Amino acid sequence: xTEFDPIDTLRPHIRDLPSYEAIxxxxxxxxxxxxxxxxxxxxxxNENPFGxxxxxxxxxxxxxxxxxxxxxxxxxxxxxxxxxxxxxSENIVAGAGSDELIDLIYRMWIQPGDRIVTCGPTFGMYAFxxxxxxxxxxxxxRKMDWSIDENALLHEAENAKLVILATPNNPTGNSLQPAxxxxxxKTKALIVLDEAYIEFSQxxxxxxxxxxxxxxxxxxxxxxxxxxxxxxxxxxxxxxxxIEAFMKTKQPYNVSAPSVAAAIASLKxxxxxxxxxxxxxxERNRVFSVLEKISWLKPFQSETNFLLVRTIDRNAKEIxxxxxxxxxxxxxxxxxxxxxxxxxSMGTSLQNDRVIEALSNIER
Length: 364
Ligand SMILES: Cc1ncc(COP(=O)(O)O)c(C=O)c1O
Prior knowledge:
Elements: H1 12-15, H2 26-33, E1 41-42, H3 54-62, H4 75-85, E2 92-95, H5 97-109, E3 115-118, H6 125-132, E4 136-139, H7 150-158, E5 162-166, H8 178-184, E6 190-194, H9 207-212, E7 216-221, E8 234-238, H10 240-249, H11 257-266, H12 270-292, E9 297-299, E10 306-311, H13 316-325, E11 328-329, E12 331-332, E13 341-345, H14 349-360
Parallel strand pairs: 1-11, 3-4, 3-5, 5-6, 6-7
Antiparallel strand pairs: 2-8, 7-8, 9-10, 10-13, 12-13
The chain binds pyridoxal-5'-phosphate.
């Protein structure tokens, strides 16, 4: 009798799916290089070096019932978000990170062969999920200064089911022009704006437009500004009818009890989180000016908590490997237009000094 092979019966497009290029497990690599865990500096995931706010840490000690399922309607969290965003709670839904919400959006709108348009380089999850849902994924490359080719985008948007754009964008760090959003909203595509880094930017959020517009969804997250990446909690703001569709489609208990407690507590600690965000943006500007003076580095202006830096006449992966041997983790890429770039998430001032020193020590 031949043995059952589960892979044989997988849906073919899942069998052929490339793995998501996630950030590596730093402790395994540190072990490989013989580095103590305490000396590891993770600046590869755009996480928040300050962690959760004091009130969120307190809530995580006691303010939830681990033995109970969470509220399917997410009532308390949506009410807290209503106050924070000044948008009615009926226009808000929470998810296990914006990642879950991206997956849900595709699950709700995308049939095999539907077109999804983005402007890369950008966040890898958009393409990863597109492959799972068998969408036709169209990437319009950004220009050299990372601005968007508006005509090409508007042209493709006309025949697309969905346009998804990060603003500010990961990894390029720049924001969309509001005038372009207005034009996109006149097309027949569903427009998804991912504002994961908006709290580090001077640009205004589009949440209030999203609450009343039938074709706009804005995604936000507690991972970056609120330092809750490991708890997996984000939210979408959209028209009431879109939120109703989310509420019907999502897993009933999609957000965990500790995540909800920490998110609600974070929204009581806005001043502290905003103060930390401004420390990070000041650090970003300081690191930018230092790196700019290193002849083989070209940092790009950023409205986020990270910097994308071109390594001139250097191999970015080799630079990253050199830093790894000192316990410093940064991000590199395989896409053509950024394969000579490194991305450095902002840490505390001392942590950033360590990266600056490591980069300065790499000889010309
Ligand atoms: C643009 C963008 N959107 C979404 C996410 C993921 O956010 P979450 O942790 O809420 O799933 C990231 C994470 O790096 C990101 O860069």
